[in-house]
Amino acid sequence: MIQQLVMYEEELQQINRVCEVLQKDSNARAVLVIDKNGQAIAQAGDVQELDVTSLSSLTAGNVAATGGIAQLLAEKEFAGQFHEGEKTNVHISIVGARVILVVLFDERSSLGLVRLRVRKAAAELTTTLEVMVKKSQSGSQPSVFSEITDDDIDNLFND
Amino acid sequence: MSFINYSSREINCKIVYYGPGLCGKTTNLQYIYNKTNPEAKGKMISLATETERTLFFDFLPLSLGEIRGFKTRFHLYTVPGQVFYDASRKLILKGVDGVVYVGDSQMERMEANIESLENLRSNLQEQGYDLDKLPYVVQYNKRDLPNAISMAELEEALNPTKVPSFEAVAPKGVGVFDTLKAVAKLVLTELRKGG
User: Fold this and answer.
1) Domains (ranges, CATH) in chain A?
2) Rounded to two decimals, what is the model's pTM?
3) Which residue in the set A12, A65, A145 is minimally distant from B7, CB to CB?
């Protein structure tokens, strides 16, 4: 019943690489890749000061709400959003209908440049995501869960 | 939808607290937040109105420890209970791995309880889920109030499928962690089945 999204080393490295290139090429402060359900997947740039977990959950909530508005207006979805702040701007786009690509940037960059670079990064991410989803669904990879015992689960709650 | 990251060795799951307005969903999360070690929790986010009614959701990220070298992280969400926020409730159910239904034990809230439970079932269906197949537990909150009705009556009205259920007084923490542990266990057990 529960669907799983499984991330393996190879795809994560590819996603990280796309994030790093995008962050450099767009002169952005930081780049985040977030699952539509609010889980942080990858990040690049100046993220030490950021609360990535909270940002991921709120961004996913925001995208979900915007998607809800789109449906009410008989739109498929709004593919992108832009929030303009005094110092930091946020560019949010949906990639491959599955993940959210967030670019945080300041006056060292511009919306035009970010948009341009995001387009290229989104195409690369889409390819990686397709592979990842196929792997998740095929279940061909060994699962850590098949070895988990009732005791393992109980032990989590013993403290 | 659980998210398993083999690279960072993490398991991420989403649990949603559902129930009628003012039943104590946010109070559950606040108690968990207050009683959890700082290193095991992230920031609690409440998107609420000025009168502290949940507007969109509350969010609390929680680490429960490791299973076979994998960190288990649970993302706890509440929905806004008020009837007219139904569109928001549907959004929050997306990707859910486990559900806690929080019922209000007061006699005068029984109608709201039943309505909310039916709403949960139909909103899940809309997203392609079947409540009977999801990890799911029930909590009867506000057991300390004088107008609380009997457990037998609550069980009959709100728990026909006899899933694990717990009595609670959320502000004092009674039943709060028992409920969380029960649903977390069910989620992990379900993951193992699927794995």
Assistant:
1) 12-135 (3.30.450.30)
2) 0.91
3) A12
Domain positions in chain B are 3-194
A140 touching B (Cβ < 8 Å) = no
| A-B contacts (CB, under 8 Å) | 134
Q: Report the C-alpha gap between A140 and A5 in whole angstroms.
A: 13
Cα angle value B49/B176/B67 (rounded, 5°): 110
Residue contact A39–B3, C-beta within 8 A? yes
Q: For the stretch A4-41, what's the b/e string if a residue is b when 16 or more beta carbons lie within 10 angstroms of its beta carbon?
A: bbbbbeebbebbbebbebbbebbebbbbbbbbbbbbbb
Architecture of domain B3-194: 3-Layer(aba) Sandwich (3.40)
Interface predicted TM-score (ipTM):
0.83
Alpha-carbon gap, residue A59 to A81, rounded angstroms: 11
Tens digits of per-residue pLDDT, A71-99? 899 998 898 899 999 999 999 999 998 89
Residues 67..126 of A with a Cβ closer than 8 Å to B: which?
Answer: 67-68, 72
Cβ atoms of A87 and A13 closer than 8 Å = no
Contact B27, B120 (CB under 8 A): no
